[in-house]
Amino acid sequence: xxxxxVNDSIDGSxxxxxxxxxxxxxxxxxxxxxxxxxxxxxxxxxxAIMGLLPNVADTFSVTTPQAGYVISAYALGVVxxxxxxxxxxxxxxxxxLLLCLMLLFAVGNILSAVAPSFESFTxxxxxxxxxxxxxxxxxxxxxxxxxxxHRRARAVGRVMLGLTVATLLGTPLTxxxxxxxxxxxxxxxxxxxxxxxxxxxxxYVPHDKVSEGASALRELSAFRRPQILLTLxxxxxxxxxxxxxxSYIASTTTQVAMLPETAVALMLVLFGVGxxxxxxxxxxxxxxxxLGTIGGSLVYNIVVLTMFSLTxxxxxxxxxxxxxxxxxxxxxxxxxxxxxxxxxxAQTLAAASNHSAFNxxxxxxxxxxxxxxxxxxxxxxxxxxxxxLSFLGxxxxxxxxxxxxxxxxx
Length: 410
What we know:
It comes from Rhizobium viscosum (Arthrobacter viscosus). By secondary structure, the chain is mainly alpha-helical.
């Protein structure tokens, strides 16, 4: 068991301190692997349901749109759970909190597999979503605390790699076996992944100390800090475009590019490859220039989402644009690291809230994209929606940058 003592940064500070106090490279790698395993399970569980909705609907004798409520229930759990858990668990050691969060996630998925009714299944999906944001936030803080400051974003990116790999491998495989065998198998599998993660965290994540003076009130102070609110707004508004496009990619593929339904799976793979590439490249860039990566990714999104709308009728351009839009996930590690910089002593709440903000972006992007489609502008127009959202996010980023420069000159 790797129960080494980690530098004091793990109990609240974002500074990794002298490199002499840092754990060995092997310990860091094992910790990142354990934390990424949880991200893989969460990502698989969150997205696999989208391909299994018809199967769920048949089992519970509801329509497919009604079955879609379980996706909303999970997302609501993420949005509510992240800040609530961060506040309530303010005096809990991060290792202990990670164990509790992943255990709740594992049990929630296993119970989802044996839910006796649609109502109970929906409630269980809400409960299972509660630990999502808090887990990623706390895992990012733990990973960042174990490396030098100039490598924090890459450490965060490796933890989030579990989520991006899930979109590429976990979700397609779980969906395939869920359709071939039974959709309950998918949730049972995700629950087992959660239990394996509990074991990995138990063995490899070091014990840590609770930060002196930790309290719910101190965590709540995060929402009094303008830079935290602006960073969360950048995520919630500026990155809704990815979800505006991705939510309707199946219809865009078949009705705009006129490709067969089998091509939808290829588009999902291209998007997953793009997310993984963006995560790796973005975390490296963020360690070089954090603010530059955030601002640059917003400009990048405006360009590629506009290109998506202009060229969606071309199968080859559609595939290229789907990959490039997926690369926009490069901002994920950067925004998570930015929150560490501006959160001061309210680290947990700020870090956990990042995933609430991205789920708001998911809901906002899908809703606005649906409106544009309903107004008759077509599925390809979702890219324009995304470009507008990224443009608005750029305004929020400019406000954050202006405040940053003003505080430095004061």
